[in-house]
Design brief:
4-stranded antiparallel sheet, 4 strands, single chain
Length: about 90
């Protein structure tokens, strides 16, 4: 299980996710900090997360995709909650 968790964290880190947290209930929270959106939104980040996991043979279900906006100089971020469906291929 530890190896799979490490692979998931690495795959998500490779596509620019800043924070990856595994919760006790088996769900994951992925966070990406932004200053400017450049046309991106929470749904696009969720798609990016799912595609990154598909590349390593993991199917994930998106539970939520949210934007947390704050005026500068505070950080703003997108947050995506996922649940892993089954194991590695």
């Amino acid at each position: 299980m530890k190896r799979r968790d490490g692979e998931l964290r690495e795959a998500l880190g490779n596509v620019g996710m800043d924070t990856v947290v595994k919760h006790r209930d088996g769900t994951w929270m992925v966070k990406r900090i932004f200053l400017y959106k450049f046309g991106r939104d929470a749904e696009k980040i969720a798609e990016k997360v799912v595609k990154a996991l598909e590349k390593i043979g993991v199917k994930a279900e998106v539970l939520y995709a949210e934007e947390h906006w704050n005026p500068w100089p505070k950080d703003s971020w997108w947050e995506v909650g996922i649940k892993i469906q089954g194991g590695m291929k």
